[in-house]
Amino acid sequence: MRGLKFVEFEKKSKQGYFALKLPKMSSWGTNNPDHAPKKYWSVEEARGKLETYCAYQERCQWEVRRKLYEKGIKGDSAEELISEMILSDFLNEERFARSFARGKFRLRHWGRTRITRELKLRQISPACVRLGLSEIDPEEYYDVLLNQAEKKWEKTVEKDPFKKRYKVISYLMAKGFEQDLVQEAVASLR
Question: Whole-model pTM?
Answer without folding.
Answer: 0.76
